[in-house]
Design a protein that fits this description.
It is a single chain. Strand 4, helix 3 and strand 5 form a beta-alpha-beta unit. The chain is α/β, with parallel strands linked by helices. An eight-stranded parallel barrel has the order 1-4-5-6-7-8-9-10, surrounded by nine helices. The chain is globular. It has a single domain, classed as Alpha-Beta Barrel (TIM Barrel), CATH 3.20.20.
């Protein structure tokens, strides 16, 4: 057959051997790209499996330290903490968020004492502490009050920073909270504490298992559509990110993940800043369900989805599959 029958370039040449595929890979994934979300529960030597998140548990503070040690051994640079506050400590005003000896603060101190080299990211929002399950204070009609909530979030952020948090991550979506938190951290002597703003957090159907994990699902009155973003909107996400960066955010987050990779890409291209995404609980549960049903290979699904986040422009990914992914990547 004549040479003219083929194009001068055969793209398959670069794919023929594993060494060549590795050499020409445009996107890389390593354990250093991962943040491992962990759930905290009261007590000692406690592990509580979460039914809607197979393979994920809530841990008492002593067992949580073991998870942080595991993360460090696997090369995962940061853990993210989320408390399941005991029912008796939840209130309409979420005052337990300001307790310097609450679950979150005890966990921060314990991890930083035992594993000082690992980063600790802490969630700033009131939903793990409120009796009504919302991220902020509500009025008589159930509307979440922006400025009153913002004042409490500032105190919550300071409480966590004083306990030793490395990254404050406000997930509440109140207007103006990043500027207020940044100013308070500076004034309180915490200039090097980072802020990773949940800048584009959507009112998503993918959060259900997380609400089980932190004990807020059955408490939630109404929905969160008055403060979390409409899934129909993309331009609004860019406005949210611009505001949070202007107010002092060091990095921004898009949440959820897979269904919003277009937002990740647009944010990265527009602002050229560190962009993170949260592979949320519903996404985790879908992969686990597919694997359990024999519809896909868990290991391959996990690595492919994480690679998709990186390809879209993510600096890093919060993933419940972080320890599994780290082991798979190390074994390669």
């Amino acid at each position: 057959m004549s040479q003219a029958a083929f194009p001068a370039t055969r793209l398959r040449r670069l794919r023929t051997a594993a060494w060549s595929r590795s050499l020409h890979a445009e996107t890389s994934l390593s354990p250093a790209d991962l943040i491992w979300p962990l759930f905290i529960v009261d007590g000692s030597d406690v592990e509580e499996p979460i039914a809607t998140m197979p393979g994920v548990s809530r841990w008492s503070v002593d067992r949580l330290v073991e998870r942080a040690q595991e993360a460090q051994a696997l090369g995962i640079p940061c853990v993210a903490l989320f408390p399941n506050t005991p029912a008796g400590l939840r209130s309409d005003d979420g005052r337990e968020a300001l307790n310097p000896d609450n679950l979150m603060c005890r966990a921060i101190r314990a991890i930083k004492a035992a594993v000082p080299g690992i980063g600790v990211l802490t969630d700033v929002a009131l939903d793990p502490y409120t009796a009504h399950g919302h991220d902020g204070l509500i009025d008589a009609a159930g509307y979440v009050l922006n400025d009153a909530t913002k004042a409490v979030l500032v105190e919550q952020a300071l409480n966590q920073a004083r306990a030793g948090a490395d990254i404050i991550a406000p997930s509440d979506m109140m207007d103006g909270r990043v500027a207020a938190i940044r100013a308070a951290l500076e004034d309180d002597g915490h200039p090097n504490v980072q802020i990773m703003a949940y800048a584009a957090k959507y009112a998503s159907a993918f959060y259900g298992p997380f609400r089980d994990a932190v004990g807020s699902r059955g408490r939630l009155t109404g929905d969160k559509k008055s403060y979390q973003m409409d899934p129909a909107n993309a331009e609004e996400a860019l406005r949210e990110v611009a505001l949070d960066l202007h107010e002092g955010a060091d990095s921004v987050m898009v949440k959820p993940g897979l269904a919003y990779l277009d937002i990740v890409r647009r944010v990265k291209e527009r602002f050229e800043v560190p962009v993170f995404a949260y592979a949320v609980s519903g996404e985790y549960a879908m992969i686990e369900a597919a694997a359990a049903a024999g519809a896909g290979d868990r290991d391959a699904l996990v690595l492919e989805t994480l690679l998709a986040f990186k390809r879209a422009g993510c600096t890093g990914v919060l993933s419940y599959h972080a320890p599994l992914a780290a082991r798979l990547l190390t074994a390669r």
